[in-house]
Amino acid sequence: MTFLVGRALTYAITATAGSGFLLFGYDQGVMSSLLTGDAFIATFPEIDTTKGGHGSSSLQGTVVAIYEIGCFLGAIVSLLVGERLGRRKCIMAGCIVLSIGAALQCSAYSIPHLIVGRIIAGVGNGLNTSTIPVWHSEMSKAASRGKGLAIELAINIFGVMLSYWVDYGMSYVKNEAQFRFPIALQILFALLTFIGVLCLPESPRWLIQHGEESKARHIIWALQDNAREIDHDDPVVVTDVNEITRAVHEEQEASSGGSFKLLFQNNKQRFMYRTLLGMGGQAMQQLSGINLITYYATVIFEQSVGMSHHTALLLAGFNGIAYFFSSLVPIWTIERLGRRKLMMFAVLGQGCCMAILAGTIWDGGKSAGLVATVMLFVFNFFFAVGLLAIPWLLPAEYSPLAIRTRSAAMATATNWICTFLVVEIVPVSISNIGYKTYIYFAVFNFCFFPLIYLFYPETQNLTLEQVDLLFTNEKVLLHWDSSLGIAGDVNTRVGNATAKDLESVNAQHVE
Question: Where is the secretion signal located (predicted)?
């Protein structure tokens, strides 16, 4: 089962989930600086868009973005077989497939070879990113679930930062190791994630859903901070098991067999509404324009701002450092301020940054270039605070257990198809319409604010079973109310709320 208990087990779970997302972040950032490296463009001149190069910007966009198609396919695989395999097996399979893709990429000498490697690596990453947030959320307590996912995504940005600096260090190498070593390094992180998951337990919620209550009880006991001081029949453990079992029974009754069609049915559990919220959050994350910067930071510094290749590499590295430190902010704020406030803060800030970027790049002067550079740093701050972790957290929080794996996979697939769209069009857009590229991203961000305010419930400090109650009333509640019980208290049975309580809350607290 597991040799770790208490906080040691919690820390090991967070570290392993973080390792998986470090791999995700590293993979996202590693191509950014390689695209303009001497060895890379000598090996792949077809996508050389540097000054004096004759490569195709559209082909460059496709080579970079095809990875997202692989990730999309991986999310679909998770959608189809993830619930049957379980959380652990999905993650381990993802690590193996990603390693194969990485090996193909780092040995490539032609564009087709490189593309095949990127697609296969993407499938592995799609499996991981569909499953890791669900596994991590289901293993976390209500009061620390958001903090745990914020730590996970901070490690993700450490991966982005690490990739920038590995690329910068390898830029001084004048042979093909300049790009082959950075690509191959991701295999190490995949191996660490695989070993971590191999040594850690399955989600107790998945086990209960599949008739393994005794194993689930042991894991819930092991996850308690004072596990060594209590036994498996402790009231806290029993209450947790009973609450999850009750939720499973209610959701299985609503699911009537678990058809995929349920994802888009608004029954009593509001499956479609909850699925669309998760998909919408992931779409917002990518249409904000973050991967305009993550994938093409060096290209932007060189082509839009006019810097030398060396300066662009160096600034991309410092941008990664600033991005990482910004990603630490939600660790302390996500459970204090909640999801909604942070998301709305982020999209307003990001919209302003994109608008200023458009103006400064349109101006084209040296001073304007400095302002544009600052805006790239500031944009990453807003994104890290409000849109980095939360869209990965919400699908796991909003989705009921009966459809959680499939709903999270749909959300992840949405993330990757939107990422593909952004990464595919950005090189062509920058080449053809220049500063106007940043205008449409500014518009997107400003449009997200009312969507978050009107439709996204606050899940701060709620157990996953309490989150269900926000959606199962006459109207969707955007905030928890004390009349329904104590938020996050495992001894409070959310099913005990009376009809009068629900009517009062619906009348007073639905915005």
Answer: none
Q: Show Cβ contacts of residue 40 under 8 Å, excluding neighbours closer than 6 positions.
A: 34, 178, 179
Within 186-283, strands assigned E span none
DSSP percent split of the chain into helix, strand, coil, nearest 5: 80, 0, 20
The answer to the question of residue 500 being in a domain is: no
Digit-coded pLDDT (tens) for 295-305: 666 766 776 67
Banded model confidence at residue 254, pLDDT cuts 50, 70, 90: low
Global pTM value: 0.78
Task: Inform me whether the pLDDT recorded for 495 exceeds 70.
Answer: no
CA torsion angle for 406, 411, 416, 419 (degrees, to 10)?
180
CA distance linking residue 332 with residue 327, whole number of Å = 10
CA distance 262 to 254: 9
Radius of gyration of the chain (CA): 23
Do the domain assignments include residue 480?
no
In a domain, 183, yes or no: yes
- For residues 118 and 68, is the Cβ–Cβ distance under 8 A? no
257: CB partners within 8 A, 6+ apart? none
Backbone angles phi, psi at 308, to 5 degrees: -75, 165
pLDDT of 506 > 70? The answer is: no
472 within a domain of the structure (yes/no)? no
Q: What is the pLDDT of residue 509?
A: 37
Cα separation, 389 vs 201, whole angstroms:
23
- What pLDDT sits at residue 42? 87
- Structural domain of 303: 7-208+260-455
The torsion angle over the Cα atoms of residues 377, 157, 48 and 185, rounded to 10 degrees, is 150
Give the total number of structural domains in the chain: 1
Using the 8-state DSSP alphabet, how is residue 105 labeled?
Answer: H
pLDDT in tens, 93-152: 999 999 999 999 999 999 999 999 999 999 999 999 889 988 988 888 777 778 888 888
Give me the CATH number covering residue 204.
1.20.1250.20
